Amino acid sequence: MSAVPADPTPARSRWLALVLLCAASMMIILDGTIVTVALPAVQADLGLSASGLAWVVNAYLIPFAGLLLLAGRLGDLVGRKRVFLAGMALFTLASLLCGLATSEELLIAARFLQGAGGALASAVGLGMVVLLFPEPRERARAIGAYASVGAAGASVGLVAGGVLTDALDWHWIFFVNVPVGVVAGGLAVRVLAADRGLGLRRGADVLGAALVTAGLMLAVYTIVETERRGWTSARTLGLGALALALLAGFVVRQATAAQPLLRLRVLRSRNVAAANLVQLLTVAGMFGFQFIVALYMQQVLGYGAARTGWGMFPTALVIGLVSLFVSARLTARFGARAVLSAGLVLIAAGLGWLSQAPHDGAYAVHLLGPMLVASLGAGLALPSMAGLGMSDATEEDSGVVSGLFNTTQQVGAAFGSATLITLSAGRAEDLRAAGTSAAEALTAGHTLAFAIGAGLALLSLVISVTMPRTRRAPSAGSVQATEARQPIGA
Q1: Distance CA 157, CA 11 (A)
Q2: How many H-runs (helices) and E-runs (strands) does the chain carry?
């Protein structure tokens, strides 16, 4: 194993670049949820249909998830800085169009552009972080910071959406992105180091790109549509089979192409493959948990948008603090796999505790405690997942490996929200039909979703404990070296 090359970038510039990348990631991730609590106001103002209301959310999620892998590879080929700047520009312009939208069609089209821009900027972010910080201890801190803003972004989005909608109006949940995007783009031009990339001839796999993009977009579309059509409908099964066929075709193409989009050696790493699978399942449970908690607060406890948002704020705060100040230190001492497993135990415990919430519950008694436990677990687990997920990346493919890791996150979010919300609603409807009161029926549906989320976390735990143990670094601070089988640049 070769030594990690020295990084020529000055320390001050590296940390400034990290702040910039974290801010961009926060803005893009929270935009997936900031619209959630504002949906009633959007519907009332624009007269959206029920399907149109769903597409305000899905039009962002589908291109975001579908383009991440391709965007990551483009970063490796044409330069990560170029792809990041293009994504920020498109995201900022689309945010302005969303805020100015006066019709359902324009808002949905602008949300699609937002998702595409977000994919371009996000796909290369984690890859840029690991290349900026080759020293293991600094890299662990940097990954912890980046993971914390990504993990907390969904909760912050709920807070921001409620506050902006109540204080101003729904247009401002999009307008607020414009000055942030302009400033971030301007700083990125000066702060991020230019990289030329490998050149399109080193990996312009057009067929592979078409297969994976179409397959991922169709898979996410099929998942999110199950809320309306069900999991066993002919349309769901047919589209799901087609999506799987496209993704299988992509795998075959990567095994035979001279310059593949994603080298399959990445997936042959047990740590990388397991980290991506653990993330998919864990995010499914955690993302669904955030939506279900918000629904429980509003539908059962009768909270308004702003109060619901502030009720979710401790989740973001704990995830951020633990990821930044606790996770890296514990990983240095015990290893990423052990910290990941401990985090998953806490997530499962918190969600299991939430599954006992009553229909006449109180926030301080029945929600705050389990939310803090689950958030503590997420703060420990998510940076460890990110470190393990990037452990076999090299300088030539860090963008596509970062894109793969982000893709599993988004597919997990789509799967979790669609599955838990569908099962929760189905349980509530069955109980209402049997004569149960509305509050009790809704609570039973929500607690079922929490229990399923806990089960997903336990399944992730089983996978995590099967990860291979790796050589620990001699230095207590060498975090990534304790788990990574091949460091960046090796």
Answers
A1: 31
A2: 19, 0
